Amino acid sequence: MPHRLVACEHCDYLHVEDDIPPGFVARCIRCGSPLYEAQKGTVERPLAFAITAFVLFLIANSFPILTFAMEGRTESNTLLSGVVTFWQEGFPFLAFMVALTSIAAPLMLIGAYIYVLAPLYFGFVVPGLRAVWRVLAVIRPWSMLDVFLIGLLVALTKLTDFADVIAGPAFYAVCFLIPTTLLMSTTLDPRTIWRRLAPENLRYATLEDLEELRVGTGQEKATGWMTCEICAFVVTDSAARETGGKCPRCGTHLHHRKSGSLSRAWALLVTAVVFYIPANIFPIMTITYLGRAESDTILSGVVVLLQSGQWPIAIVVFTASIVVPIMKIVLLGWVYAATGLGLAGPLRERTLIYRVTELIGRWSMIDVFMVSILAALVKLGNIATVAPGFGAVAFCAVVIMTMLSAMAFDPRLIWDRAGMQKEQGMSS
């Protein structure tokens, strides 16, 4: 359809969507955020990757990840072992978060791809395709198997210093599962799926509608537009009234801006700051070896890695567990404060900072996954045990609160509060 409109999710600037060469990305001319990639119209490859990922996921959950041998005793763990150990040790919050991020969310993500793409490929009808595809936007940030793998490698590094560790079939399954799920996502253009799932009589906002927004037509004048946060469909206010305030393509409730966005983002960020203090004071785990107990905080764990000569792993842990949380809290706080005060300043750079901090926050879960693996694997009674500590609970809360804070914030306020009026712009 000619002159189809697309709005930037970070600044709400309207563009005219056009075909671009394969391998290229269309970016917003105002804030520089990515709008869309070159269309990938087929579902064969992503469906094949999704089915492969499902098989690998079953292997990853059915066989041991690591086998730990010491003093003639052995212990094995699976993906579920960390969840069970956290629950048995009295840490239900950690058990829930590890189960969600390493098992439930990845399974739901893979399952949603198969559920939606298989009917589209084979041509049969199943109910709820749009609802399932809509849920993907909520699930995706919480699928953290890639972060889990880094935590697994850190745990493996710690264990090899004083015991024999054997990688099981699930270890290799996880290693192959991560690139497979990545290919599953990158070989598919979500816009193509939404267009195939859209109602037959769906009308897209066009350049002509943009002109009506400027000058009005007939007796009614359109006052603006709304962009669906799930499927990125641009809906004029008049069209939204006709559908009862719902997106005509995916059914999501529409709104110009997230309600109470700035206040909720601040509340969650302040909560993260409060949790950050005990996260660095209390131990994240206690290691008992031949009757001698030693507690590790986040920082002391980094020091131990440096002392053992594992400086590459130490740098990764220090960056993910110390630098990233502090940087995210400071930068998000600055973005929120500047937005609340309505400062003009470098709006494009401020939007970029928000996008980067939103993406990197999940990598701080490395320490939580490491503790879940060690606590589940090292259970040899008086010989060696690893027990989780309250510091892990507080640190996990910091990660989750900062992620929720970034999700609650509406980046379009950066431009609104700086006095930027909605620009009825276009580009091709």
Rg on CA atoms, Å: 24 Å
N-C termini distance: 14 Å
The residue-averaged pLDDT reads 84
Order of strands across the widest beta sheet?
6-5-7
Largest sheet: 3 strands, antiparallel
The low-pLDDT segments are 215-223, 420-428
Q: Helix content range of the residues, please?
A: 55-70%
The number of helical elements comes to 16
* SSE series: EEEEHEEHHHHEHHHEEHHEEHHHHEHH
Strand content: 5-15%
| Helix and strand composition category | mainly alpha
Number of strands: 12
Shape: globular
Family: Belongs to the PqiA family.
Keywords: Cell inner membrane, Cell membrane, Membrane, Transmembrane, Transmembrane helix
Protein name: Paraquat-inducible protein A
Subcellular location: Cell inner membrane
Overview features:
single chain, 428 residues, globular, mainly alpha, three-stranded antiparallel β-sheet, 16 helices
